[in-house]
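Reopening this ticket.

The earlier resolution said the output was attached, but the attachment link was broken on my side. Pasting everything inline this time so it's all in one place.
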Amino acid sequence: MKSDIEIAQQARMLPIREVAAKIGLAEGELEYYGPYKAKISFGVMDRVSQNSDGKLILVTAINPTAAGEGKTTTTVGLGQAMNRLGKKAVIALREPSLGPCFGIKGGAAGGGYAQVVPMEDINLHFTGDFHAITSAHNLLAAMIDNSLHQGNPLNIDPQQVVFRRVLDMNDRALRNVIVGLGSKMDGVVRQAGFDITVASEIMAILCLAEDLMDLKQRFSRIVVAYTYDGSPVTAGDLQAHGAMALLMKEAIKPNLVQTLENTPVLMHGGPFANIAHGCNSVIATKLGVKLADYLITEAGFGADLGAEKFFDLKCRFARLKPDLTVLVATVRALKMNGGVAKEDLAAENVTALSRGLVNLEKHIGNIRKYGVPVVVALNRFPSDTEAEIETVKERCRDLGAEAVLSEVFARGGAGGEDLAQAVLAALETRESHFAPLYDLEDPLRSKIDKICREIYGADGVVFTQGAEASLAKLEEMGYGMLPVCMAKTQYSLSDDPLALGRPKGFVITVRELRLSAGAGFVVAITGNIMTMPGLPGTPAATRMDIDENGRIMGLF
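Inline output:
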């Protein structure tokens, strides 16, 4: 089979105005970035606000493994299949980060014959949204240090500056840095550091804001530091929020692209799911449900992270009601959860598969806690045997959840028609009774405990001494009513990335709490979560090149 980039480069893309016309967008409502990309201008949401809402379908997955699950590929393929069946469907995705592209994880535009195009543009600079986020973030960081240098009128304690700088690249050397070295004119010497752009609170705010003015107000609430007496200092105190919003005036507009089969795709924002809330923008999602009869979106990593945050954060903030969840699994990943080494996954092993099915079972149960119906998409690999496939289907039948084979990677939309039919049938026959897991009035400790016990299956939660102090301070400052964004390894239901399957008898250790007052949540950090990843021994960048005709090679 051809590589992803070879398939993408041979795609027959439609001019983006024709893709827009499929969902009722006029040419005057587009701002073009070449012939195949556009931003959707302000005013469209007002025009379509009286439209009835389409069905909101979330695609999530079991815990990811090195075997691969294909969540984005399934999302794209399902959208293509729905359109093949004559349904008016739109896909809403996150934008890829340059860090994983040049590192080890790869891009985020699907794969095989279920991709979003133009793939090279999307995975590289796209329409410049991430650059705008990086600039707005670092403007605020610069204004903090400038305030310190210019006599410190806000009485900021340099040792309590909590707002770091960002860069959209994996660079471990920047995790911890010293700023202000040199002469007195070079600023106040203090320890600082960089996170990757997708971990920025600016990114989280972009993806939760309703409009430009909401974005600006959220910016003003960002807590960047504390004074010597412990009082919070905000971006509003620095009078930085207006200029930050100015830098974001184009980035806040959702991007329109297409799949290989010309299905419309709204691609906007891209927070990581293990350290942030892992969903595309509220603006794009709410626009999509007004433009289409079916809006298919995804949440990052496994359902314990992505789906939980989609339900408890995004849907709560945006007043969205999901109608159905598609849970992606593979035989290979389930066998790995059952103890099979990666090099042995091609061999049939029904016994290990049966052991690994506990991971799928837990995620099905978790989704049902929110009152949302679920369909299992079994993403097929060539090595899967009939006995293994039937084992998964039988277990799902026992749980009252239909499992449907998906072959969208190899066959595009045609390989997803059975899944699309099952989704349509479930939407007709099973009603969603969505409700978040916890109430905002619950104390922060109770919210964290409920997620850990009910979603992860933990026996309890342990807070480090520092986390306990932060918990008390946040409650004292009036932030106890905020929802919680858990930062946890994506590889396990627990906080131990090596504990596969469905771990039992464990506790979750919360080592740090961080306030994201602008985004509107408290981040609870567990385990060893990196907010600035590093490159692997052989970065993907070493395999990439471009020829004299501008043809890109090695990008997946």
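Reporter confirms the inline version is readable. The mean pLDDT is 95. The first strand starts at residue 30 and ends at 32.
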